């Protein structure tokens, strides 16, 4: 066997599903104009920061990767909202709530020259309840004189105010030291690579009004088996345990689904952050589509995001009670044309309103999860490739015929195949291989990736 298994370390280079790095998250909260953005710029060093795009309607830039003393972490600037009709107090309460849900450390910024306001007090209430580590930045302490003003912020009752001047960079090193001290040693957030244990994690995804909260209510309510609302834990304050098909499932970010304000949906900043965070923690996404409505750009984007994140997928066509013969005809064509990227996903036609086919949801989720964690033994895989290469060899190009020499499944969750080849395989041939792998081994409901390593 001539294959050098050390070559597997090349995997990093072309990971098809580069999962978002599981870095500790620092969320920045505070009233408008206290200097949050200025401080974030200071923390990320005003370089062109590596910026994560988050899935959602827009590709807003909301989180940045920063590093200090050799440690990397993600900074989320939660200041992306505009005070609207709900008023400042309500908006900031939402901002703070979200920050504590997402963050490992909350950086609370107060304007020392203004002092403690009612809104600051309200934020403190929320931070206290969440029991997440909080670092208090007393900003705009531009000179010695302002130090006294900073000291007045002890009055908030959440520990020592760290005097900083985001504008002039004063003592921001001390602030960063403090943030690192407050950070957990290892990022505590669950990663998808983790061995399964405890309830499987399901996220309900879909654009506004497709019926996510209706489905959640149906699932939790109908079976009368809401086991527990997981509240107040530092890890997952927002999930719900629901018993279905004799098993307990963890539904991710049900708080976000239940309480989302109708007028606040869509391209909403928080919706984007929540979607990102829910997807990161989920193993499988049930993507809801409104079957009564033409497929939208946004539906496809959501499907894309889930696949890119490497999560298992179930497609749920909701509002089936509204689908008639004619609509059905067009729907089949839409799916054929526009959802080819997820043609391997199990599909259930449900109605959260009437309860139609609710019982089909769990088997579909189980199928997808099983595929997601499935591993094809190397011997079996290579027998498959031997047969494939002899029955369907790669076309000859420039007098050469690249061959698959050896194949191995290098990872699961999601499955990742590595082919060692004697030359470059054309994309068309690689797609053919992927299709044949699915035909042979299934993988219904899971994205898979096929990468090649050319051996000269
Ligand atoms: P945000 O709304 O909390 O993100 O606040 P910004 O970062 O946009 O800052 C609001 C205003 O405060 C801007 O005019 C900043 O230049 C100013 N500012 C921010 N930090 C400081 C500081 O440390 N000292 C002073 N004097 N002004 C600051
Ligand atoms: P969300 O924004 O995705 O959480 O969607 P909602 O659960 O709030 O549902 C949006 C609207 O669609 C509400 O008026 C629901 O009553 C309605 N709806 C949800 N599921 C169904 C369904 O299966 N059939 C019908 N006819 N209406 C539904």
Automatic annotation (TrEMBL):
Binding-site residues for GTP 1, renumbered to this chain: 30-37, 77-81, 139-142
Coiled coil: none
Residues where GTP 2 binds: 206-213, 253-257, 318-321
SMART domains found in the cross-reference section: AAA (SM00382)
EngA-type G domain location: 24-187, 200-373
Family: Belongs to the TRAFAC class TrmE-Era-EngA-EngB-Septin-like GTPase superfamily. EngA (Der) GTPase family.
Function per UniProt: GTPase that plays an essential role in the late steps of ribosome biogenesis.
HAMAP family named in the record: GTPase_Der
Record's protein name: GTPase Der
